[in-house]
Amino acid sequence: MWGPWSETGRLGIFPLDVEWMVSMKMSFMTGAAFNRNPSKAKKEASERPLVITDRGEAAYVLVSYAEFQVNWTPKTLFEALRDPSADEREFEPARLGFDNRTVEF
């Protein structure tokens, strides 16, 4: 999976390392519990990713900044295209139609 990265003010690409997310044992906490005790949430997130739920649905993931840097580092477009695992991803761009366009000179 890939997503846009605009935190730095420029558009880049970063991989969502799904295998890492699946292999990690995650903790869960309700949004209400997070609001009552954010210190406990920070402690949990320093050990493993913490999924914060809202009305029973996963809404946010809290991880330590060190873990974020290791696993979700932004890539340039060149690095993303150079990635050997990019060959394994299915990509079918939508076909653009230019029918019924008039040309103006």
Outline of this structure?
With 105 residues, this protein is an alpha+beta fold.
Give a verbal description of the structure.
The protein has 105 residues and is an alpha+beta fold. It folds into 2 domains: 1-16 and 72-90, no CATH class; 25-71, YefM-like domain (YefM-like fold, 3-Layer(aba) Sandwich). It is 33% helix and 22% strand. It is built from 5 helices and 5 strands. The chain has a 3-stranded mixed sheet with strand order 3-4-5. A two-stranded antiparallel ribbon has the order 1-2. Strand 4 and strand 5 (57-62) form a beta hairpin. The longest helix is centred in the middle third of the chain and has 10 residues, at 38-47. The protein is elongated, with a radius of gyration of 20 Å. The termini are far apart. Residues 1-16 have low confidence and may be disordered. Belongs to the phD/YefM antitoxin family. This is Type II toxin-antitoxin system Phd/YefM family antitoxin.
Terminal CA distance reads: 43 Å
Which secondary-structure class do the elements indicate?
Answer: alpha+beta
DSSP strand tally: 5
Top CATH class of the largest domain: Alpha Beta
Family: Belongs to the phD/YefM antitoxin family.
Protein name: Type II toxin-antitoxin system Phd/YefM family antitoxin
Organism: Rhizobium laguerreae
List keywords for this structure.
105 residues, Type II toxin-antitoxin system Phd/YefM family antitoxin, alpha+beta, disordered N terminus, YefM-like_sf, YefM-like fold, two-stranded antiparallel ribbon, three-stranded mixed beta sheet
